[in-house]
Amino acid sequence: MNGTFRIAAKTVHIWLGLAVGLPFCMMGLTGSLLVYRADIEKMLRPNWHAHSTTRSPQPLSEAERNIKARFPNSTLQHVSLSEFEFTIRDRGKQTHVYCDPLTGELLGTFEVPWLDWRVGLHHNLRLGPAGRQIAGAIGIALFLTSISGLALWLWRGVLRNGTWRSVFQIDWRRCKTANFQLHRLSGLAANVFLLILSSTGIVLGFPRTFRSLVKEPTRVTVEKVGERLPLEMLLQSALREIPGGQAKELRLPQNNAAPVTVRIWHAGDFRPEGSNKVSLNPSTAAVLSVDRSADWSTAKRIVMSPTPIHYAEWGGGIVKALWCVTGIAPTLLFLSGFAIWWMGFRAAKRAPKQVSQAVLTAQ
To answer: Dihedrals φ, ψ of 252, to 5°?
Structure first.
């Protein structure tokens, strides 16, 4: 590594780390919490029990009727079939309603405001679409900081010293030296995972940019919409398009020109919520479009993979724990890195004074 490249890498690493260090900490810590979001909600959710034991032939429709009776001014937006969770908007407020999957009986509503607030902070800094792009920009900065840190490690540990073993040595006798060596070693340990999370975060921050690189299904509109059919009929129509699939969620239209979208999981899907999407006319159940993950090109698979990787939707508890620890790493690296910079800054300010004092003493 020549001197110019090394200086450039050091400049990028130091000043990006200082300038965007606090956002790194915020995104990392909220991300560590986010990987356990479903587990936290499940732990805090009340253990409801249905009063009725009579199985309904149409539990979805029964649940929708019960919700409408309880919230007459509400609009149904989304249904999660795995939790039998109905997301509604009532007088401008979004509410999550849980029903019994056998009877459709309304069990109760459940919200975790402090968790939802932090999730929104991680996704888009609670600033809407513009905030999502800012989060993507933070991902770019983290990626560059990680790459420059890796370059500096290679220069100091291999090119300058001729052996990588020196990088793993820590001199505990000197606090300043030990802090620097710990910063370098912990950065190396977390680097691969930070590169994965930052690169996938970039894709999530600019989804339209990356999806424009692959062929996406044409957006469909509904020309004539009457009264919406029962949810069960819509599900049956969608499942016929993905034989052997399991319906995971429904997204209901918020305007008359939008279709109902059903997400379906099939063996081999990377995402637990399913990668197949079927769009339907809500009043006729006619299939308008089908996006089968089995038909995806290699390029599209690459573009669609960052979401399950970034949010640890695969790999089980081991990956979740690994991602959680990696999310804490930016805070530790920022604090130790700031200490290294501050001690160097103070030393540089003291040096001219010491030289001046030495000159006066000599005179």
So the answer is: -90, 145
The candidate with the shortest Cα–Cα distance to 149, out of 343, 346, 330, 339, is 330
Give 9's Cβ-side CA count (13 Å radius): 17
In terms of Cα–Cα distance, which of 11, 31, 34 is closest to 23?
Answer: 31
- Please tell me the chain's helix, strand, coil percentages from 3-state DSSP, rounded to the nearest 5: 55, 15, 30
In CATH terms, 231-296 corresponds, of 3.90.1690, 3.40.50, 3.30.450, 3.10.450, to 3.10.450
Residue 219 DSSP symbol:
P
C-alpha distances in Å from residue 118, one per residue of 16, 56, 170:
24, 38, 37
Q: How far is it, in rounded angstroms, from Cα 116 to Cα 219?
A: 30
Q: Across-strand partners of 290?
A: 278
Helix (H) or strand (E) holding 70: helix 59-70
Give pTM, 2 decimals.
0.86
Distance CA 155, CA 15 (A): 19
- Say which residues have a Cβ less than 8 Å from residue 215's Cβ, sequence separation at least 6: 297, 300
Cα-based torsion angle of the residue sequence 250, 62, 282, 224 in order, rounded to the nearest 10 degrees: -150
Whole-number pLDDT of residue 112: 94
Given this model, what pLDDT does residue 104 score? 95
Residue 325 carries which side chain, given as an amino acid letter?
V
Residues 243 and 235: beta-carbon distance below 8 Å: no
Burial class (CB in 10 A: 0-12, 13-18, 19+), 13: buried
In this predicted structure, what is the pLDDT of residue 361? 46
Point out the residues of the chain with pLDDT beneath 50: 355-356, 358-363
The structural domains of the chain, with segments of one domain joined by +, span 1-45+113-215+312-363, 46-109, 231-296
Tally of CA atoms within 13 A in the half-sphere of 40 that contains its CB: 14
Residue 141: the pLDDT is 96
E-strand stretches of 243-317: 246-251, 260-265, 276-280, 287-291
What pLDDT was estimated at residue 355? 45
